[in-house]
């Protein structure tokens, strides 16, 4: 391939489009002499004349017209692609579970929008893994094999409810406990038995009801139907507003947590801004 500079082609395209070295110079913020120099060098490298030069006018030759069409199309395609990439970079696509989106992510996004008003976050939810190379996938699972740079947070679990339901439990009244049972059977179960042992409680005190999403369990606790055995990050906003509380019960730590599956180098600058912001929110739970 001939050693032809992109700058020379850019100058040629502008000159051919304007039919003027002077107007091309104004567009590119260089001198007409510099335009003429670039064109002459380009003609020498190609071994052809690109323009018919007249006193106040230039006209592309047949070869010049052919190159003008190609450069105009090529630079137009590049400009459109760059514009599209810039616009895409302003929208951060996030895929996560319905429970995490509803209970943690979406309520917290107001703070992100305030801190980064030029970035937009689009959230898609679902319980099945979606492979999208342009999106951030936030996954929940066993983090024991996850790299520290991919980890968003480790979860601890506790029982949460309103004061009436918690008072009933303290009085040894049989209490309904809503517990998540993950659709993904490969995940470790919620640490219910470990929590009972940690708090010195007997399982006979509870009538256990399982849902396949924490979101449903939390909604039942908000409605006063019983307690929810949930991860701390998903009830953070509710405990801050005193809608739910854990009373005096002790939480139990786990290796379950939220993480992103890719290494930092595989994310864009905008995506890393979002990931680091989200990690800070979760570590503040």
TrEMBL record:
Question: For this chain's UniProt record, which GO biological process terms are given?
Answer: DNA-templated transcription
Superkingdom of the source?
Bacteria
According to the UniProt entry, its GO molecular function terms are: DNA-binding transcription factor activity; sequence-specific DNA binding
Signal sequence coordinates: none
SUPFAM superfamilies from the entry?
A: Periplasmic binding protein-like II (SSF53850), Winged helix' DNA-binding domain (SSF46785)
All copies of domain HTH lysR-type, residue ranges: 4-61
Q: Which InterPro entries match?
A: LysR-type_TF_proteobact-type (IPR058163), LysR_HTH_N (IPR000847), WH-like_DNA-bd_sf (IPR036388), WH_DNA-bd_sf (IPR036390)
Q: Which Gene3D superfamilies match?
A: Periplasmic binding protein-like II, Winged helix-like DNA-binding domain superfamily/Winged helix DNA-binding domain
In the record, the note on similarity to other proteins reads:
Belongs to the LysR transcriptional regulatory family.
Q: What is this protein called?
A: Transcriptional regulator
UniProt organism field? Pseudoalteromonas luteoviolacea (strain 2ta16)
């Amino acid at each position: 391939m001939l050693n032809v500079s992109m700058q020379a082609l850019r100058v040629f395209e502008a000159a051919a489009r304007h039919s003027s070295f002077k107007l091309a110079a104004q567009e590119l913020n260089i001198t007409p002499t510099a335009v003429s120099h670039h064109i002459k060098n380009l003609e020498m490298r190609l071994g052809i004349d690109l323009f018919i030069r007249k006193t106040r006018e230039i006209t592309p030759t047949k070869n010049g017209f052919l190159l003008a069409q190609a450069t105009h199309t090529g630079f137009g395609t590049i400009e459109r692609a760059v514009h599209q990439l810039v616009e895409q970079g302003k929208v951060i696509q996030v895929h996560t579970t319905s429970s995490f989106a509803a209970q943690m992510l979406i309520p917290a996004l107001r703070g992100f929008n305030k801190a980064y008003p030029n970035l937009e976050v689009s959230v898609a939810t679902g319980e099945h893994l979606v492979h999208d190379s342009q999106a951030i996938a936030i996954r929940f699972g066993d983090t024991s094999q996850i790299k520290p740079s991919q980890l968003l947070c480790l979860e601890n679990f506790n029982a949460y409810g309103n004061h009436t339901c918690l008072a009933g439990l303290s009085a040894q009244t049989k209490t309904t406990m809503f517990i998540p049972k993950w659709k993904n059977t490969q995940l470790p179960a919620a640490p219910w038995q470990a929590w009972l042992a940690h708090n010195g409680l007997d399982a006979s005190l509870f009538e256990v009801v399982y849902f396949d999403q924490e979101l449903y369990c939390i909604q039942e606790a908000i409605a006063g139907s019983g307690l929810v055995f949930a991860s701390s990050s998903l009830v953070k906003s509710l405990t801050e507003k005193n809608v739910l509380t854990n009373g005096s019960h002790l939480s139990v730590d786990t290796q379950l947590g939220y993480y992103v599956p890719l290494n930092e180098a595989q994310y864009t600058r905008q995506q890393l801004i979002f990931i680091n912001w989200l990690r800070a929110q979760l570590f503040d739970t």
